[in-house]
Design goal:
Rossmann fold; alpha/beta
């Protein structure tokens, strides 16, 4: 199949999939699958196979069925999850381990050591061998814990993702199915987990769904790439160096991450992010808002946030101004999410915290204060499912608007606009929990954006997104910033931090250690905030 254009690569897929089943690790033939309440098939007569020992990367836009395919190949769908499905034949792996997109979905025990011991007990490992094995696998995935009898619920999402991978590696399966294992990790964490996978990959089958693919390719972990379209159609497959050349048109058309994709996007007039140029710091006009005042929207001084009696974040001094786009960066578990939660009043705090001139914070969480903050701040959790309260996508977006007493006409208009903006049109009647992780994330951002608050706090809104939807979210944030909204976004994407954001906050070991202007921010007119004072805009 080498050297063929993407449209032609798929011509012999059925013949290949129906070959010698003895050499196959997993396969399915003539697959048709449709979710309840869904109008279209996720897959329609798909035949797909993975050979023993093969290292396969599955690419496709958000919502194209990649996670579902992994669950079909493992036998979870329709075995453990009842979904209408039909196929003419199937080969299931005899020994497999699967890492889910959402690490919380696979934990069985409340504590770290108990979660790992659960795997080892099921494998019949002697008790005295367990602790050394636990320590070794945690080291491999970069989860450095002084105490492993630790509640899993206290870990950051990135730390949970490492723990979930550690438990899978302890299973020592023949087939590893990894569903976006690096989505929640910092750059160092991504390097560590791929090196850990690489150590065990030689005699195993790997089936990987991933958006961040540079580390995978650099380590030579991928033999074959399978490219899927938005409706679950197999567009083509082949060696990475061949597919990225022959399927470039499809990769760009469907906004699928591939080497060099960031260089093809730029800000243009009106803040639209389009293809055809390079993303350069400061490109496109900066339109300062009339509301960008000398006085900050948020002022923090000797600010500290707590979980129970433990201090998890501290800020000596920081300010947020209208029109800021602040990227909050730092390693997993540093306290980035805790900072946003404390600003939202969802964690108790001490010190000085002023929002629009009004004082907030306190060691006791008060419902009235949280409600007051929610009328000034739009908030998006790291885990999108934490904020879903309705049974339909359109109702979820409109929930807060109904709570604020907007007219049905205004609600309908805002909801319809948000559905189009965030690529959720056609999913109005779908239950939020039936969406892909990327779609869930867009839904959570949509629900916060429709409120039109002066401050928007976003905890990793682009994880699990394809290129098109990542840039759509950034495009929306840029539009809001230009209108005077202050954006504070936790991210592990260096391109966002330096080329899209205007300022950066660095968090390490529970402390906001550094803040300043990004490459883009230095080229834009801005207030000088280093001493906590601001000059008027020209």
């Amino acid at each position: 199949m080498g050297g063929l254009h993407c449209e032609a690569i798929s011509s012999d897929l059925h013949a290949e999939a129906t070959g010698d089943t003895v050499s196959l690790a997993a396969a399915v033939w003539d697959l048709r699958l449709k979710f309840p309440e869904g109008e279209a098939f996720v897959f329609k007569d798909l035949s797909f196979s993975v050979k023993r020992g093969e290292k396969l990367l599955v690419l496709g836009p958000s919502g194209s069925g990649k996670s579902t395919l992994l669950q079909v190949l493992a036998g979870i769908v329709p075995g453990l999850v009842e979904v209408p499905m039909r196929c003419s034949g199937q080969v299931l792996p005899a020994s497999w381990g699967m890492l889910f997109q959402d690490p919380d979905a696979q934990f069985c025990m409340p504590y770290v050591d108990e979660e790992l011991a659960f795997v080892l007990e099921n494998r019949g490992v002697a008790r005295e061998e367990m602790l050394p094995r636990m320590r070794d696998v945690l080291r491999k995935v970069g989860l450095d814990l002084k105490e492993i009898h630790l509640l899993i619920g206290t870990l950051s999402q990135g730390m949970k993702q490492r723990l979930a991978l550690a438990s899978i590696l302890l299973m020592d399966p023949d087939v590893l199915l990894l569903d976006e294992p690096s989505a929640l990790l910092d750059p160092e964490g991504r390097r560590q987990i791929w090196e850990a996978v690489s150590e065990v990959a030689e005699d195993r089958t790997l089936i990987i769904v991933e958006h961040r693919i540079e580390e995978l390719l650099d380590l030579g972990l991928v033999d074959r790439v399978a490219l899927f379209g938005p409706s679950g159609q197999l567009l083509g497959q082949g060696a990475p160096e061949e597919l990225f050349v022959h399927c470039r048109k499809e990769l760009e058309e469907y906004g699928i991450w591939h080497p060099g994709v960031w260089s093809r996007f730029r800000f243009t007039a009106g803040s639209q992010i389009e293809q055809g140029g390079s993303l350069q710091p400061g490109s496109g006009p900066f339109l300062p808002s009339a509301e960008r005042l000398d006085r900050p929207i948020i002022e923090l001084s000797e600010f500290r946030g707590f979980r129970g009696h433990q201090k998890v974040i501290q800020v000596k001094r920081a300010e947020v101004y209208a029109g800021d786009f602040i990227a909050v960066t730092g390693p997993n578990g540093a306290g980035k999410s805790s900072l946003l939660l404390a600003l939202m009043g969802l964690l108790p705090s001490e010190g000085s915290y002023h929002l629009l001139g009004e004082r907030f914070g306190g060691k006791k969480l008060r419902k009235r204060q949280v409600q007051s903050l929610s009328k000034r701040i739009g908030f998006v959790f790291q885990n999108p499912e934490f904020q879903f309260v309705e049974n339909r996508v359109d109702q979820e977006i409109g929930f807060s608007l109904r709570e604020e007493g907007l007219s049905p006409e205004e609600i309908r208009q805002r909801v319809d606009h948000a559905l189009d903006q965030f690529g959720l049109a056609g999913l109005e009647q779908r239950h939020p929990y039936q969406l892909s992780l990327g779609q869930k994330r867009r839904l959570s951002v949509a629900g916060a954006a429709v409120l039109k608050r002066p401050v928007l706090l976003l905890d990793e809104p682009t994880f699990g997104q394809d290129a098109v939807n990542t840039f759509a979210i950034l495009n929306l944030c840029e539009d809001l910033r230009r209108s005077g909204v202050a954006i504070v976004m936790v991210t592990h994407e260096e391109q966002i931090a330096e080329a899209v954001a205007t300022r950066r906050w660095e968090v390490r070991e529970g402390t906001l250690t550094d803040y300043g202007y990004t490459d883009r921010g230095t080229l834009l007119p801005h207030h000088i905030c280093e001493a906590g004072m601001a000059e008027a805009m020209l």
